[in-house]
């Protein structure tokens, strides 16, 4: 069970979401994680760690490096990768998750944030379709809190108010013993050009929950982070018609995607968001099957309207799903 102090520390860690600039279809600054510095322990250049957040959350309490982020020679490419580990903290005496985010600055205002998705941010004016990276995971998933996560968001500030432009979040599969490509599709809420980007990786689900617990020793390896593709406001009508969904509406919450022509259109990653823009289901890319269909299981979700984005080899397909 988390203490109030741990909540304070974790929320401070949300401030790690100050991110470097990147251009669509180009590598994120030091996304290869090849360059490192010593600051509260190991830290990749242009990236921040949980120890950086603790230094802001607990000023005047110098702590030894937690080991939550370390430089690993077990890399996907090049010489190094980042290893994020859920570790036993000496103060507060609990298990803290390994956290890593691109950026150079954490402020005290970040301490009060209760979400990892929209804190901080640095200038960014592209509209990429997705974030991709390679990862491995080693450990025990004792509860859903132990699921490793990756988040990306684009925002624009108008009149002092930050608005969400696009968002993606992925709970990573926990059976990756070798480096695996992960894709986090961005679901766009607006056609405007963003001015900031936000990204975070964590060895556990750090969305605040007073009853959450993490398993010490779980390790997430991250390497070769990039933003790819270009989102456009215009949809391909022929492509849209080539992928259907049924039954829609559904009385059970179980849907199926169906390809009327090319079964390969169903192989891409997809995400489903609720009416508030929260990701309720995310599935990675998978091989085509002979049936020409692919399930979308929302049986655990309440009645309402949901938005599905499927990233096909020819571009995105969007559908509204209705659960009665």
TrEMBL record:
InterPro entries: Put_CMD_sf, Secre_tail
Record organism: Hymenobacter persicinus
Keyword Signal: yes
This protein's name: T9SS type A sorting domain-containing protein
Keyword annotations: Signal
Signal peptide annotation: 1-24
Protein's UniProt keywords contain Acyltransferase: no
NCBIfam families assigned: Por_Secre_tail (TIGR04183)
């Amino acid at each position: 069970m988390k203490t109030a102090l741990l909540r304070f520390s974790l929320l401070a860690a949300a401030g790690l979401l100050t991110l470097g600039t990147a251009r669509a279809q180009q590598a994120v600054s030091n996304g290869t994680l090849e360059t490192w510095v010593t600051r509260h322990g190991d830290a990749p250049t242009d990236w921040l760690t949980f120890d950086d957040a603790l230094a802001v959350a607990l000023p005047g309490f110098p702590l030894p490096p937690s080991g939550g982020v370390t430089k690993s020679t077990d890399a996907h490419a090049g010489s190094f990768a980042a290893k994020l580990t859920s570790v036993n903290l000496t103060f507060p005496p609990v298990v803290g998750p390994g956290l890593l985010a691109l950026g150079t600055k954490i402020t005290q205002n970040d301490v009060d944030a209760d979400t990892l998705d929209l804190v901080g941010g640095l200038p960014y004016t592209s509209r990429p379709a997705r974030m991709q990276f390679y990862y491995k995971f080693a450990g025990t998933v004792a509860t859903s809190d132990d699921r490793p996560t990756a988040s990306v968001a684009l925002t624009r500030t108008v009149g002092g108010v930050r608005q969400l432009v696009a968002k993606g979040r992925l709970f990573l599969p926990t059976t990756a013993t070798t480096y695996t490509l992960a894709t986090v599709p961005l679901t766009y809420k607006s056609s405007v050009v963003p001015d900031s980007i936000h990204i975070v990786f964590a060895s556990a689900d750090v969305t605040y929950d007073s009853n959450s617990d993490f398993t010490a020793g779980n390790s997430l390896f991250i390497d070769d982070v990039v933003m790819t593709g270009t989102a456009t406001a215009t949809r391909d009508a022929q492509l849209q018609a080539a992928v259907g969904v049924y039954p829609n509406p559904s009385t059970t919450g179980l849907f199926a995607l169906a390809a009327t022509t090319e079964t390969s259109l169903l192989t891409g990653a997809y995400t489903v968001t609720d009416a508030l823009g929260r990701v309720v289901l995310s599935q990675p890319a998978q091989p085509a099957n002979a049936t020409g269909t692919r399930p979308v299981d929302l049986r655990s979700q309440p009645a309402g309207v949901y938005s599905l984005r499927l990233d096909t080899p020819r571009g995105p397909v969007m559908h509204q799903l209705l659960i009665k």
